[in-house]
Structures are given as C-alpha cells and as structure tokens.
C-alpha cells in the first residue's frame, strides 16, 4: 500500500462544484426564485442579486442569470474589487511569505480560499499552511514516501492552527483582521496541511463556514497512518465558529472528527435538499458527506474508485449534480511510467464522468475522459492535481479546467475540457513547465526524475484553480493558487474566448491595471496572539 501514497503527499488538491439551472431561472440557496440578471461592470449593481446581507456573496452567483453555483471558496468575486479603480485586490507573495514571520510554527502557505465572514462588503479569506511540526527528519520522510508526514499521537498534528481566517475591510482593503481566536476547537486537534479549504454557508445563517480537508499522513507510535483530522467549523450566534459533528465512515467517534486523506474535495447539493454537501477523495473510494442542514455531516463511500481529484456540477444538464472523479489517466503500456493503473497498485481505471441521480448516488459512468500527452504521445500528463468547473465558453454547459502533471509531478499543463453534449474533449493545454523532450520511455524519464520527495525542476502546478473574471470581460479567468514558493503561484490564465487561455505572471499583471495587491502589514497579528478556545 505504501507506494500508492507516494504520489500524493506533495500535492493536495482542491475543487468545488456548482449547480447548473438549465431553465434560466435563478434560485438562491433557500430555494427562492430571484430575478435574472446579467453581469454588470458596475460593482454596486453586479452579478449578485438580492440583499447581500442575506445572500452570501462568496458562493451564490447568478452569472448570465442561469447558474446557481457552489464555489466552495474558489471564486474571487466582484466583492474583491476596489469600487473606485475597478481593480481586484489580491494577496501577493510578500503578504503570503509574511505568515512565517508572524504566525508561530508556520512553515509555508499552501492555499487561500475566499468567503464572507462578516457581511461587511468585501470578500474575506482563509489562508492555509503547513506547520513545522509536520516535518520530521529527512530520512524518515523519504521512508514514508513524501513530505507532509507528521509525528503525532493520532489527532494533534501541530501546535497551532494551520489556518488563519481573516476579515478584510476598508476602502483600500487594508484592514485585515485575524479571526483565529474565534475558532472553537472541540477536539484537541489543529490538524496540518490546509491545502484546499472549502468555504460555504453550511448551516445557512448568512455567515460562511468552512471544511478543512487534510491530506497528511502521520506516524502514530512509530506506525504509519495515512489519515488525518478533517474538521468542519460552523458559525454560531456569538460570531465564533464551532466544530460541528461528523458521523459515519472514517469518523473518530470520540471526537466526532472525520479522519481521511482528502487530497481532492468538491462541494455541491448532491441530494437536492437545499444544503451544501461535500465529497472527498480517498483510497477506498470517494466519500460523500451529507449535510443535515446545520453543518453536521454523515460520511459514506459513494463511488468505489481510488481518486485524488474530484469536481462536480450538472454536466449533462438534467438537474442532478454529477462528478468527475480522477485517480490517474491510464494510457496503458510503456506510457504508464509508474503503473498507477495496475490492479496491484489500486486498480485505478482512469478519469471518469459519473452521473448523479439527485439523491446522492453516483453509479452511471458516462465517459472516461481523454488525456493530454507530449513528446509524440510518449509522455502523458497522467496525474490530476485538481479540477474546477465553470462554463468557460459561455455556451450553457459546464466545462472543466485543472492541473494535469506527469508522473511524480514532472512537467505539467493547465488542461481545459470542453463540454460537448455532456461529454468532455480537450480544448486547450497551457504549459506549466515543459517536460524534457528526451522523456520517451520510463528509462529516459527515470534518468532525471528519481523520487517525488526529492523534488524536480519540472515540478509546478496550481493547487487550486480559482475562478475570477480579472479583466471584467465576462469570460471567466483562472487564478493559480499554489504553495508560496511554486513558480506559478499567483499566475493568471486569461480566458481569450473559444476556450483558449494565455498565461500571465504577477509582474505582467501589475502592468495591466487589473489588479492591486494587499498592502503589506507587518503588524497585522499584533495583539492577536493565538489563545485556544475550547
Ligand atoms: Ca454559516
Ligand atoms: Ca444537500
Ligand atoms: Ca446531471
Ligand atoms: Ca461550456
């Protein structure tokens, strides 16, 4: 089993899902019909309808009047625009690197999610990271097959929380307040490695809540375990967030905490009862977490394949949420350098589109998705780090974009699938770092790429593809959220129409007039020393 895990430890992914209404009606999360409205460049009259004090502007959007969308925190909305300059305020590298200095135990930033924590008018964020406690000695780390492995007694993986929720206020987005002290932990865990935090209003009280999928393994008394605590925090009446109750598969019953290896995650109302549910990936299959309407979740396996990335949406426009569940692409033969698709390695059977029945059941495989390759078809981008869904070509069906990389994350592309009558075909690939042209078989590849945990110079990808219409042309672009030191962290993939995308780095973006960056606050954590609330 050990080797199966090797490929994943560096990479956690984040996804989310969305609901698609084909009849053009806009329905809010409570099921009320609200008016159709196009996207306007006027921030005071943008794509959100209704009272923003009631409707959470981080997740329900009515783009073109026909999409009821669960963003799961992976959307930078017009509530991140400076109303005067029409520029988005974005975190920059300096902001992201400052966490190591100001937060005890902080190793590096792994991901950011966008939400609404105070109904104040701006989008707020959760910054997630790795904690130092999770990095034991090199020798042991290599034995375990990757970075991110923790020494642990089973639950407590780090000394301090691995997430920092912030509220952002002020006309210059310069009032950034640490909300860490408003987290009420009911178990003793802080977890570690928050890569793809899901944000949504799970208990429907108008303030966003969050789920922290964790994909870190641990040594418990010298014994290696792939699972870690995945916590849900739900807003309470006092302006705090409390851990909610998890039941079902892989749940630690003493603490009511879900213990998984959740490399992939997506959020959507899969059982059509009006609240947002979750799906996480795992070795034994994908796990559906059904919301009871109050942010308590019951977990059960709902698709049998081992997977590492997942996204959801109504891909065939029949009103039910479907999933695309990804272990690895399986081209077969010599192209499968690591034999991830063989029976003895988990029996992965490719990347599948699986139709939902609207009751939370996913059984009907509709398609095995095609893979991208280079070097004359000899090198396949076989591993899927993450996927997200949106109607990128504005033709009324949901397309998919995400980071596909070679074995051990050597070489990679941003890959965009076009939805054609409910089936996916590759519309675009944009290189992260091109693989070596000499890699035509396992031997040539292996002469350069030795081990995932040792890294390689071809390793770059997005941990999450974040949706943002950065140039306000009503074509959704992608912001690349990655670990702070990744070569493509903070890059944009600009939607040029017809599902063609152009890559732009932060330096180029500064010249476009589309973005501003948060000012650097050297003392934003002052007087806000973390005090655990339990
Ligand atoms: Ca809430
Ligand atoms: Ca539901
Ligand atoms: Ca469907
Ligand atoms: Ca489309």
Provide an overview of this structure.
There is one protein chain. 6% of the residues lie in helices and 34% in strands. The protein contains 5 helices and 39 strands. Strands 11, 12, 13, 16, 17, 19 and 20 form a 7-stranded mixed beta sheet that branches. Strands 18-24-23-22-21 form a 5-stranded mixed beta sheet, with no helix packed on it. A 4-stranded antiparallel beta sheet has the order 6-7-9-10, covered by helices on one side. A hairpin with a 5-residue loop joins β9 and β10. The radius of gyration is 21 Å and the shape is globular. Residues 201, 203, 205, 207, 209, 234-235 line the site of one calcium ion.
């Amino acid at each position: 089993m050990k080797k199966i895990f090797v490929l994943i430890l560096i990479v956690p992914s984040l996804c989310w899902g969305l609901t698609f209404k084909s009849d053009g009606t806009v329905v809010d999360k409570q099921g009320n019909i609200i008016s159709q409205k196009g996207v306007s460049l006027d921030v005071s009259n943008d794509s959100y309808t209704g009272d923003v004090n009631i409707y959470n502007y981080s997740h329900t959007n009515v783009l073109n009047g026909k999409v009821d969308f669960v963003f799961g925190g992976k959307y930078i909305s017009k509530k991140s625009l400076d109303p005067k300059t029409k520029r988005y305020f974005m975190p920059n590298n300096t902001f992201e690197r400052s966490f190591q200095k100001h937060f005890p135990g902080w190793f590096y930033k792994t991901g950011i999610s966008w939400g609404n924590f105070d109904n104040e008018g701006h989008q707020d964020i959760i910054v997630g990271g790795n904690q130092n406690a999770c990095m034991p000695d090199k020798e042991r780390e290599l034995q375990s097959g990757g970075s991110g492995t923790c020494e642990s007694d089973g639950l407590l993986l780090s000394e301090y929380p691995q997430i920092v929720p912030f509220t952002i206020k002020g006309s210059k987005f310069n009032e950034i307040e640490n909300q860490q002290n408003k987290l009420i932990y009911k178990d003793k865990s802080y977890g570690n490695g928050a890569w793809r935090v899901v944000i949504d209003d799970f208990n429907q009280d108008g303030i966003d809540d969050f789920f922290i999928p964790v994909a870190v393994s641990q040594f418990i008394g010298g014994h290696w375990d792939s699972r870690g605590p995945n916590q849900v925090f739900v807003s309470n009446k006092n302006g705090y967030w409390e851990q909610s109750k998890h039941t079902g598969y892989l749940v630690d019953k003493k603490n009511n905490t879900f213990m998984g290896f959740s490399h992939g995650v997506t959020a959507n109302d899969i059982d059509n009862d009006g609240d947002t549910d979750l799906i996480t990936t795992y070795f034994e299959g994908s796990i559906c977490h059904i919301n009871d309407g109050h942010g308590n979740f019951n977990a059960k396996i709902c698709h049998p394949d081992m997977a590492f990335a997942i996204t959801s949406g109504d891909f065939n426009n029949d009103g039910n949420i479907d999933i695309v569940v990804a272990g690895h692409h399986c081209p077969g033969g010599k192209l499968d350098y690591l034999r991830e698709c063989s029976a003895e390695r988990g029996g992965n059977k490719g990347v599948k589109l699986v139709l939902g029945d609207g009751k939370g059941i996913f059984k009907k495989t509709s398609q095995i998705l095609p893979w991208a390759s280079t070097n004359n078809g000899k090198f396949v981008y076989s591993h899927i780090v993450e996927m997200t869904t949106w109607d990128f070509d504005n033709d009324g069906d949901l397309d998919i974009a995400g980071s596909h990389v070679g074995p051990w994350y050597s070489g990679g592309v941003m890959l965009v699938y076009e939805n054609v009558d409910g089936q996916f075909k590759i519309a675009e690939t944009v290189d992260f770092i091109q693989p070596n042209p000499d890699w035509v078989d396992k031997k040539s590849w292996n002469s350069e790429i030795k081990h995932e945990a040792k890294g390689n110079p071809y390793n770059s990808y997005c941990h999450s593809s974040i949706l943002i219409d950065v140039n306000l042309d009503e074509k959704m672009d992608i912001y690349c959220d990655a670990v702070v030191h990744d070569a493509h962290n903070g890059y944009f993939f600009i939607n040029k129409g017809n599902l063609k995308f152009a890559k732009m780095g932060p330096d180029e973006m500064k010249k476009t007039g589309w973005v501003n960056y948060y000012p650097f606050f050297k003392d934003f954590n002052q007087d806000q020393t973390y005090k655990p609330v339990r």
